[in-house]
Each structure stands twice: as structure tokens, then as C-alpha cells.
Design brief:
This protein is α+β, with helices and mostly antiparallel strands and 760 residues long. The chain is built from 25 helices and 14 strands. A hairpin with a 3-residue loop joins strand 1 and strand 2.
Length: 760
């Protein structure tokens, strides 16, 4: 059998025609019959509910009569009578209401329509045939019940002689009850008959409607079978027509299944088509691509800004005037970082490259073809290369930094840093359970790291300074937490390891330089040149002690033996502080000059303490005290701020250290304001503080008047470090200031013998 060829449009038209035919022949008549059946059923239920009311009325009248005869309580029976009477009266009235009229009218139509099936029907509303009789019977009965319904009061009275007797109202009630009983005996059976007749007729209507509905449904079933057969024939013909299309689609599916890139089409609404490559599922770890919007695909894996830009970019591709090659150069998804689920509950980061190509049919843009490639390996390789370059550059920067540091100072710094790292490690390992113990550990760690950071900054070792600053950042986040636990300190171990490793690498580098210097010095006793570096041996960097390994001690010793630098009497502290002053002033966009006096008289035992205090004093003076050049000029001061550090030997009285600047001085109100804001004091306490107590706040751990911390100030550690160092040796700290004029810190250090005695 040869089936006719049918286009897709023709098949759609035929199905629409068949559907409308089925709707007109089966569904509409069936729905109409079902509605009529429902209406008549509701009417039947309504009338059936009223059949019990005449019986209740008769029973209530008999109960009232018997209770009157026995002188019993009649109010319950009267209430029952009123309830049944009112219900029946309302029901008979409602039969003529618009809603019930529709019920009975529909029922009558169904009854009249039975003529089509061979049965007779008058077409008259069912209730209408009985309405007059019902109205007449109920009117007479209701008239006889009215006195009973209106009765109020008590029908009895008590008498000592005759007992309980009927009152006049009671006698009248008794007469009305007897009259109502007589009337009811005549009308009640007739009412029952009329209601029963209505019920019977409604039941007959229901049966006829149900029969017609079954007939319509059987007809619809027959028509449906015919339609199924017709559609089956059409489908067979259509399947043969689509055989070649299926083969072509299979070839396309094979291509999409084997291609390594993700491929899909976007329509004008930016929705993904039903065909896409299998690689797309592995790239995005999902399978619901068909019909998915491009926005939904990217929404949870790229940033909001990237998503917005990408949607605008794809929208531009639909414009005919847009040059495709030109717009590809601004592709925001050329290499985008995405976070997708790996299918095991973990989020993995990948780098995807999206390419967009217009698809034209008959010269018009119909779709945009999107290809997605996983370029994670390429990006990782580029990052590794960049990391290697950065590491190499970092080593070069570290080397250049070492070249400018005095060998003796470098050796001292590495040795002191090694000791500080050991102390930090010991503090981290120290057990603690209470909040106060955790806070004490934080303050100690802050002071130790800040000391290393300060000297590294003074020596210009930026790589060490930056790592120490990062360590302080984590300490700051712990200080801001309300509750601390031992687990909060675990990340510090990683930070400490990074700092230790870097100090070790610096030590190793110093050792290598010292060995290189020693080798070149043995061959060339005059002037040697380090090739490719253009650095003269006489100016070459000198080694020092490594930070975290015993083998570094030998390297430091080699530096000392090979270089024998011309060390100044103050150990190079003045030069180091001069460099620190220039760097901090430049970063703060200020001008400052430093003058150091008496540093050549500092005992070796106090040299480390004075150096740490001097570093903090320089930073505090420039950041907090000395004003910018323009502000100083407006105040009548020279544009260059002056900072003076002086160390004095007082003989038996000990030693005195003075740090003074000609800056803006200290404001007690500003200090109290910062202390209030950070919770160091209460408003009530602030009112009672004198100047000495206010200045004492400067030395508390974590206190600073700077709003935002930098690598030079704002942690609230530098002044606390001074106070702690003085406390450890039994020294004293005094503050003197004049707003707008100067700030002076005076530190009194005890004689060494007394310090040794106290330490013992």
C-alpha cells in the first residue's frame, strides 16, 4: 500500500480538524449532559432533605400535646417544632428562588429531551406541576402552626390546693395544639405525597440523563477509535517520510557525541537548543541543557559582572550591522574562571573558553553557535610559568635587598629573628583554655612579630617585612573575634612556617654569597668584579647568620671572616634608622629629618632594646606626629619635620633615652575618643581620667588612634612593645607633649648591674 506524502504543516492541520470534530461531537454534548445530571442530582438531594420535616412537625405536635397533659416541660418540643417548620417553609420558598428554579428547569429540559429516545415528556418544570398544591397545603398547615410558633411564656402555674394546672395561655396552647394536629393529619400526608412525587420524577430524569450520557460516551469512544486508526495510518506515513531525517540526525548525534568541545545553539531568546555535544555535560556537570537559558547556564558559575557583560555581548551578535570579527576581540568569556560541582559534592575550579559564531539561513541570522573548550591545563601551565618567574624575581629582589644591608646588621637581624621565631613557636605551643590566656598569647605574638617586622623594614628587607605584616593581619583578625579557641591559632602555624622558610632562604642566600665572596677574594686580592652583576667586591653584600638552621651559623661566621666590614661605633643603627625615616616619610608623603645622638655609648646589652624602641619611635613620630609639608607651612613651621633620638649615660642613675619630634603633639581628647570607640574605656571612666592616665592608654595592647592599619602603624603594637621592653628590664616610660609643638618620650633604663641582679 502506498501512503500519500504529507507535509508537517498538512499533518498539523488534519490533527486540528480532527480535534475540533471530536470536541463538537462528543465533548460539548457530554459536558452539557453532565451539567444537567449534576443539576438534577442537586435538586433531588435538596427535595429529599425536606421529606423528613413534615414527619418532625407531626412528632413535635404530639410531644407538645403529651407534655401538656403530663404538665411536663414543653419548650424543647416547641423549639423542635419551630426549627422543622422554619426549615420546611424556607425550603418551599426556595424552590421558587432563581437558583432552585434553574435546577428544576434543567431537570424539566432533560425530561422533555427524552422524546429523542422515544419517551414522552411534557417539558414543564417539575416543581411547577406541584407548586400550587404544595403552596395551598402548606399555607393551611402553616396557619394552624402560627399560634404555636408565636407562643411565649409558661403554660402552667402551681397551686397548693389543686397542684400544677394550666394557665389561660396553657389552655389556649392546648387548644391550638389540638387544632394543629387535626390540620396536620389532613395536610401532612398530602405534602409527603407531593414531595415524594417530585423525588420520583427527579430520579426518572436522572436515569434518562445518565442513559443519554452513556450513549454519547459510547459514540465518543467509537469516534476516538476511528481517529486513532486514522492517526496511526498518518503516523506510519510520516515515519516513512522521516526515515531519511532520522538517519541524518543520527549522523549529527554521532558527531556531537565524539567531539571534544562543548557545542550548542542559542536562539534569539538566548535559550539552548535541543541538540548539543556530549562534552557539554562533562564540562558543566549537568544534563538539563535543552531549553535552558544561557543566563541560567552561567548564573551560578561566574560573577554577576561577567554574566551581565556576557549577555550584552551575545545580544550584540544578533545585530546585522555588527562586525563579527571585530566583536570577537572583546569576548568577555574568552577565558573565564568557573566553579562547578564535580559530581561528588565538591566544587572544582576550571577555566573555560567560549567562542561565538553566527548561523545564517537564507542570509538571515537564525542562531548563534557556541563552542566551549576546557583550557584549564593551559591556564595552569601559564600560572606555573608566572609563579616561577615571580619566584625568580622575588629571589632577585631579596638578593638586591641583601646587597644594600650592612653584613653585621644582617647577621644580627637573622640571629635575632631566629630567636623570635623560636619564641613565637613556643608561645603557639603553650596550652591555654581561658579567654584571658588566649588574649595574652595574642599580645605576645603581636610584639614578637612586630619587632621582626620593624627591623626588617628598617633594613629595607621588604620581602620579610611583607610576610611579617601578613602574619599581623591574621593576628588582627583573631583579636577582633569575641570568642577564641585553640583551633583559631592553628592557621598561624602555616604563617609561621612561611616566614621561617623565607628567613631560611635568606640565610642560605647569604651563606652562598659569603662563600662566593671568599672564593673571589682568594683569587683576586685587589678589586674583583662579579660578572653580569656589575658589583665591585669592595661593595659586595656581606653574609650573616641564617634564621632557622644551625648550619647558618657557619655561614654567618664565614661572612664575618671574609668581609671584615668597617662597622661604625653605633653598630650601623643610625644609618638603618635614617633609611627607615626616609622610607616611611616618603610613603606618608611627608618630609622628615632624623638626628641620632649618643648611640655610640649604648651598652651591648641594651643595643637590641634601643634599636627596637628606635624603630617604633621613628614610625610613630612620622605617622602620628609630624604633619604634611603644606600643613606645617600653614602653621609657620618648616616643611621638614624634625625627629631627635638621644641616648645618655647617667652613671649610677642608669641611662636615659629620649625620642622627640616637633609635630602636632598629643591630644588627650582624641586619645579618649579613640579609646571610647574601641571599647578601652567607658564614657563615665573618660570623664575621670587625667592627662597621665590618658597617655597610659597609648601603651595598651591593640590601642591606636589610626582608623585603618598600615604596615607602619595602626596595629596598636609599637607603643605596647616599648612598655613591655621597659617592664622586662625594670625601666620607666614618661610622656611629655604640647599640642601643635612637640611630643617627647623619655625612657629610663636601669644600670646593668641592677638589671642583672633583678634578672637573677
Amino acid at each position: 500500500m502506498k501512503f500519500p506524502r504529507l507535509s508537517a504543516g498538512g499533518l498539523v492541520v488534519l490533527v486540528i480538524i480532527i480535534g475540533f470534530s471530536f470536541l463538537g461531537v462528543v465533548l460539548v454534548p457530554g459536558l452539557k449532559l453532565a451539567s444537567q445530571l449534576a443539576e438534577s442530582t442537586r435538586a433531588l438531594k435538596f427535595v429529599g432533605q425536606q421529606q423528613r420535616n413534615p414527619t418532625v412537625i407531626r412528632a413535635s405536635l404530639d410531644s407538645i400535646r403529651d407534655r401538656l397533659a403530663n404538665r411536663a416541660y414543653v419548650q424543647d418540643s416547641l423549639d423542635q417544632l419551630r426549627d422543622a417548620t422554619n426549615k420546611l417553609d424556607d425550603a418551599l420558598r426556595e424552590i421558587d428562588a432563581p437558583r432552585q428554579a434553574r435546577w428544576f428547569a434543567s431537570s424539566s429540559k432533560a425530561a422533555g429531551a427524552s422524546d429523542a429516545t422515544g419517551e414522552s415528556g411534557s417539558g414543564e418544570p417539575i416543581a411547577g406541576k406541584h407548586a400550587a398544591v404544595l403552596h395551598d397545603l402548606w399555607s393551611r398547615e402553616y396557619e394552624s402552626l402560627s399560634p404555636l410558633l408565636a407562643f411565649q411564656g409558661v403554660p402552667y402555674q402551681d397551686n397548693e390546693t389543686t397542684g400544677t394546672a394550666l394557665t389561660d395561655n396553657g389552655k389556649e396552647l392546648e387548644r391550638d395544639v389540638n387544632a394543629a394536629i387535626r390540620t396536620t393529619k389532613r395536610s401532612a400526608p398530602l405534602l409527603d405525597n407531593e414531595l415524594t412525587a417530585i423525588v420520583g420524577e427527579l430520579q426518572a430524569v436522572n436515569e434518562r440523563s445518565a442513559s443519554r450520557l452513556r450513549l454519547v460516551m459510547l459514540s465518543g469512544l467509537s469516534l476516538a477509535l476511528l481517529l486513532i486508526a486514522l492517526v496511526s495510518v498518518l503516523l506510519i506515513a510520516r515515519q516513512r517520510q522521516d526515515a531519511r531525517l532520522r538517519a541524518a540526525r543520527q549522523q549529527t548525534a554521532d558527531i556531537l557525541r565524539t567531539v571534544k568541545d562543548g557545542l550548542f545553539l542559542l536562539d534569539r531568546d538566548m535559550n539552548i537548543g535541543s541538540s548539543y555535544s556530549s562534552a557539554l555535560e562533562s564540562l558543566f556537570q549537568r544534563t538539563d541543557f535543552a531549553g535552558l537559558s544561557f543566563e541560567s547556564l552561567l548564573k551560578h558559575i561566574v560573577s554577576e559582572k561577567t554574566l551581565t557583560t556576557a549577555l550584552k555581548f551575545v545580544g550584540v551578535l544578533w545585530a546585522e550591522r555588527t562586525k563579527e570579527n571585530l566583536v570577537k576581540s572583546i569576548n568577555p568569556l574568552g577565558e573565564v574562571e568557573v566553579n562547578v560541582d564535580d559530581g561528588k559534592g565538591k566544587v572544582v575550579t576550571r577555566f573555560l573558553q567560549f567562542d561565538f559564531h553566527r548561523v545564517r539561513v537564507d542570509g538571515k541570522i537564525t542562531h548563534v553557535l557556541v563552542s566551549v573548550s576546557d583550557v584549564t591545563a593551559r591556564v595552569d601551565l601559564a600560572r606555573e610559568l608566572q609563579a616561577s618567574q615571580s619566584q625568580a624575581q622575588g629571589q632577585v629582589d631579596t638578593l638586591l635587598g641583601i646587597l644594600h644591608v650592612d653584613p653585621a646588621q644582617l647577621a644580627s637581624f637573622l640571629s635575632d629573628s631566629n630567636a623570635a621565631m623560636k619564641m613565637i613557636n613556643a608561645v603557639l605551643r603553650e596550652p591555654a583554655r581561658e579567654e584571658s590566656a588566649f588574649r595574652k598569647k595574642l599580645d605576645t605574638l603581636f610584639r614578637l612579630v612586630h619587632s621582626v617586622k620593624g627591623e626588617a623594614a628598617a633594613l629595607g628587607l621588604s620581602s620579610i617585612e611583607s610576610r611579617a605584616h601578613s602574619f599581623e593581619d591574621h593576628l588582627k583578625s583573631l583579636r577582633d573575634k569575641t570568642d577564641l579557641s585553640g583551633n583559631d591559632f592553628l592557621p598561624l602555624v602555616i604563617k609561621l612556617d612561611d616566614l621561617l622558610t623565607h628567613l631560611q632562604s635568606v640565610g642560605d642566600l647569604v651563606a652562598r654569597l659569603s662563600r662566593l665572596h671568599a672564593a673571589t677574594s682568594s683569587e683576586h686580592t685587589d678589586t674583583a668584579v662579579i660578572e653580569d652583576g656589575a658589583v665591585e667586591a669592595g661593595k659586595a653584600p656581606q653574609g650573616g647568620k641564617a634564621a632557622a638552621a644551625d648550619k647558618a651559623d657557619g655561614a654567618a661566621e664565614a661572612v664575618r671572616e671574609s668581609s671584615k666590614p668597617d662597622v661604625k661605633a653605633d653598630g650601623g643603627v643610625t644609618g638603618m634608622l635614617q633609611k627607615l625615616t626616609a622610607r616611611v616619610a616618603g610613603e606618608q608623603q611627608k618630609e622628615a629629618v632624623l638626628q641620632c645622638m649618643g648611640f655610640d655609648t649604648i651598652p651591648d646589652e641594651y643595643r637590641r632594646i634601643v634599636k627596637d624602641i628606635s624603630v617604633q619611635a621613628v614610625r610613630n613620630a612620622i605617622v602620628h606626629g609630624i604633619e604634611p609639608a603644606g600643613e606645617r607651612l600653614a602653621l609657620g613651621k618648616p616643611t621638614q619635620g624634625s625627629l631627635r633620638l638621644m641616648f645618655q649615660d647617667l652613671g649610677e642613675a642608669g641611662y636615659k633615652y629620649i625620642a622627640e619630634d616637633d609635630g602636632q603633639g598629643l591630644s588627650t581628647e582624641r586619645i579618649k575618643e579613640a579609646a571610647l570607640k574601641k571599647g578601652f574605656i567607658t564614657p563615665e571612666k573618660a570623664q575621670t581620667l587625667d592627662a597621665k592616665q590618658v597617655f597610659a592608654l597609648l601603651f595598651q595592647a591593640g590601642f591606636s588612634t589610626v582608623e585603618h592599619a598600615t604596615k607602619d602603624a595602626g596595629r596598636g603594637v609599637g607603643m605596647n612593645l616599648m612598655a613591655t621592653l621597659m617592664q622586662q628590664i625594670g625601666g620607666k616610660v614618661a610622656v611629655a607633649t604640647m599640642p601643635g609643638k612637640f611630643t617627647r618620650l623619655t625612657l629610663t633604663l636601669p644600670q646593668l648591674k641592677r638589671a642583672d641582679t633583678e634578672a637573677a
